[in-house]
Fold these 2 entries.
Entry 1:
Amino acid sequence: MTDPATDPRTDTPPGAPADHRWPTGVVGLGYGGDYNPEQWPLETQLEDVELMQQAGVNLVSVAIFAWATIEPREGEYHFDWLDDVLDRLHAAGIRVALATATASPPPWLTARHPEILPRLADGTVLWQGGRQAYSVTHPVFRRYATAMAARIAERYADHPALALWHIDNEIGCHVPRDYSDAAAAAFRDWLRARYGTVDALNDAWGTAFWSQRYGDVADVLPPFTAPTYPNPTQQLDFDRFSSDAMLDYYRDLRDAVRQHTPHVPVTTNFMTSTSTKGMDYFGWAREVDVVATDHYTVAADEEREVELALSADLTRGVARGRPWILMEHSTSAVNWQPRNRPKAPGEMLRNSLAHVARGADSVMFFQWRQSVAGAEKYHSAMVPHAGTDSEVWRGTLGLGRALEALAEVRGSRVRADVALVFDYEAWWAVELDSHPSVDVTYVDRMRAYHRELWRRGVTVDVVEPGADLTGYRLVLVPTLYLVRDEHAAAITRAAEDGATVVVTYFSGIVDEHDHVRPGGYPGAFRELLGVRTEEFAPLLAGEQVALDDGTSVSVWTEKVHLAGATAVRTLASGPLAGTPALTRRTVGSGAAWYEAARLDDVALSRLVDALLGETRVQPAAAAPPGVEVVRRHGEQHSYLFVLNHTDAEHRVPADGTDLLTGTTHQGEVPVPAWGAVVVREG
């Protein structure tokens, strides 16, 4: 008998925690995409199933935008077409992630109840005609949405195709912040629960400034468009509230389907990337059975494969190392960028395998068949407008074969010696208005450090501030402007216990209420770093200052005084010449570095080399520039993913069998230009 702990046919990937739930009945790695049969005649739907079988598709999301088709008029339900779709998919052996159909309310609902429509900060109503034309906090919409979710769950609770619940879709994508009357009332309720009394709220918001003190929470409004800067802590709390409100909406729909199908896992598709900051996905991840995410590369980004890697590492961090689902990405061009270039030959395969390399156990797309009408008709799909005689379709077939060959990778895990601390609250706070420099953005230093490590083949875990840092040799803390005392203490303990910790400028400055920590910057990290900054000295647009080794800094400098640390680099020009720009302090059995000025690429590269030398962190494999290497670890084997993002063949040290070709290699493995290999080691 096969051991269920290692059998890839089981619903829970091998090695996953006991509470991890995976789409039921999905064999090997998941493969498929959003399927919208309501857009197509029956003959096309029949062809779809045949093509899915050819491509090796085993999981599709259905009914995401089907509310108006299911319920064209209030109380009039048409389920026969969906019954037939699910029956056909089941007969073909294809599992279904069934949606709640709530991602866009039907026109009759917004016409009858215009009060459910969301608003911008200036009061502009976001009308029906696109999608997500709803306020998640409005009780009327919540009632209709949960009723629809419950009705679908009741009807399909025992359908044999049902593998996963897909709640709504990209919640908060288009309306991350709603300023409607319903949102204002919910915000006040949230504040009462958070603070208890109006005095506590006044203290947290610092309302003695600008005569903002409240006598009653009932007088509080969302941070509407104002004559000048709204209260920053009010803005920060509205960010927190908005994330919580959208999560509460998800919970309501989740609970509505769970009443009928407690045996079916539930998720919603996150948007974990360096461009989506509206939702605190670390908190959201605790409420889903399996993390699922959508990710799209930006064609104009010349380093889009690097950004993809960071976003995938972030998703793995949000999932706390567990297997996750890539719910959407694109086979080729999208429709929403200013200039929508198609993907280059091999790019779709490399993108897909990069996500798998970093922890995804399912690869899905938007969408299965490219639409001929609507706003997304120029968004690529697995079956393009050109049909099956196309490079896109041949890529769809090729990826299906690759994922089938990689079935045994399912459930294996990524390990890393480097932790990168990421915090949504710090992101919200650091990019508030009325700060020292608009050029200081949250993801800038994060992307910079991750990029340098990616280039060296070093794997990074992205972790939340409260994560256990035990065992990490290198801990990166970029722009952690807002930090809680307990999180600062945990970072300090990591250094004391032997890790090398790197903190960048504009970190540790404020507490959770966005109140400045007095006594000098960098506030919560002064003692750890052994420095004290008396004043910020941001640089003007385009301005650069030389360092003592011939490199330079831009955007940021500060008046730093050493208080136990040693200056590694100093400013060599400008009014602060001689001032430390990069410092290091021995802490316990570890060390703490401070990037007090924004290092240029050369200076940062030298710093990263020094950090890797100090910590003895090794790459997954020695690889030339432009060749990405990541390793997943299973119970019996490890798997080295090698992705060549260059136009030349390269060789990488490896021993084992390339699962994509079946070829066994000793000593090194050749990787074709724009190609990929996945080596089973051991």
Entry 2:
Amino acid sequence: MAANASLAALYRPQTFAEVVGQDMVKSILSRAAREDRVAPAYLLSGTRGVGKTTIARIFAKALNCEHAPTGEPCNECEACRRITQGNFVDVVEIDGASNRGIDDIRRLRDAVGYAPLEGRYKVFIIDEAHMLTKEAFNALLKTLEEPPARVTFIMATTEQHKFPVTIVSRCQHFVFRQIPEATLEAHICDILQREGRPFEKEAAHLIARRAAGSVRDSMSLLGQVLALGCAPDEPLTAKQAREVLGLAGQEVMDRLLDALAGQDAAAIAVLVRELLAQGADMGFFLRELCGLWRNLFLIKQAGRDAAKELDMPESEQERLLSMASRFSLTYIHAAWQMTLDSQRRILTSLEPSAGLELLLLNLAMLPRLLPLEELEPIVAPASGIVTPQGSAPLSGGATGSSPAASASSASSAQSAAPRPAAAPVASPAPSSVPSESPAPVQSAPSPSFVRSSPASASVPSPVSASAAASSPVAATARESAPAPAAEPAPQPAPEPAPHLTEAPKPAETRAPVSRRPSAAWKDVPVDPSLTWDTFLDACRDNHDIPLPMLRQVTGEVRGDWLVLQALSQVIGQQLQRPEKLRVLESLAASWAGRPLQIAFRPPQRIVRTEAELKEEVQSHPVIKKFQDAYDARLVRCTPINR
């Protein structure tokens, strides 16, 4: 081996047993070579540096070894030595990136037709095979499916998704996994011992974490550390590994958590500046930070039982237990989520250092921006916003809307349809509701804020809800889900406002028709002989009430009562108008064969005006703190149509 060979080439495995990991693939190929049952084509896919090309070469040696058929090459015969050196005529290794055209594949097909000259099998190894063109793949199809005797293809790739399905179906496909961190660390320690270099185990652990499951990357990093970090007679330390590889040490994480716990923005700015000055690997720093939040979350959730499962020294367990006690479980979870979500955005940003600083500042200010201790007991359902009867109102103490808001609701309930918005503010947890009074579903308010200032007080500039949703406050609020509670049971639906061109009617004629169910029908059983579907069938020829409107209502007969429940407040108000009630009574009497009184349950969906929603949302303590923190003003609250 050349004197300037890298550690990856110097210690490249020469047998299946020496390969790190990939036990399933090794056992299958070794058995195929031992039993001389070789497939026409193999496809080896996986991330970089996990042994694809190495195993392909070992398999080629096992097939052509002088002691074949055998499960392991001897590495002593002439064929094994020449394959290792790369000058065996029957083992052809092709670079798919530089031989990707159809002319190259045609030459390969011509070579396939010749019988092996020196060995038992002619083996074609195509590395980075995904680089072949579509025409080249098509030219290779027939050869892969039915190659001549004693010929096999081995294709290695890091991007299996680029392969045509017709190629994959003609190959035995083996997926190579990333090497576990513990296995990679043991391999690095073995290489250091074979090199005769003293080392700290923590240094090998850092290199294994930085390699991210790639054996070749670990060898490259180890060679870099040995070349630049210490003299040949000096031990390899964790401090040297961190300095060479640009990794943040334990003291950096301790300083970061101190700054986050103290909400010290200045300390975070200094810390980021020092990391950049040291040339720290930003991607590895974010990975380490995610790992730290994960460990803190598990320890905070399960205590010492989780610490024992983290496979770390006792001193490190005590350190994490002490750190976890400084933060709430909800904060750790939110910080972990924010760090995970920000990794790709930071690393692909035009200003990654600014993105990292913003993330850390958001983590520091998170307790101020979002009162987690108030939101933690509340759980938000994933579906629509349900406001059960008997739950607390949004304002915390108010039991209804203001008179002005109620008047606004009476004048615009019929004409104002809910408008879609980006996201609801929150969702309360469901509670038990009696069967006679199902829980109404209300439209979710979506508030918009503007920053208050003397200069802009007269002309507010609303901020979109989507912009607010991208902030860490909105992101964590959606997960923690603070819930505006529902109003009490809805009041009788008022009569819609008259058209502006009509003359004002007397008060008694404009009063809403009261069709609330009395207690008389509640104890009466439902009449199963008169179903709502048969009522709809009887109303098909009716022209006074459209059938689609009646399909938005459910009903049942209880004695002399026809009890109706509309899906929405607007439909219920329409049906309670005097002329509609007379038509309903006439249709019901004709259908049932006797007079029936009409009663209405509360509608399933309550539609409220923007003024009512705005007043209710603005009184919520979380919204108040948000306004105080940002000097903002609530300018609009748009309901979401559910």
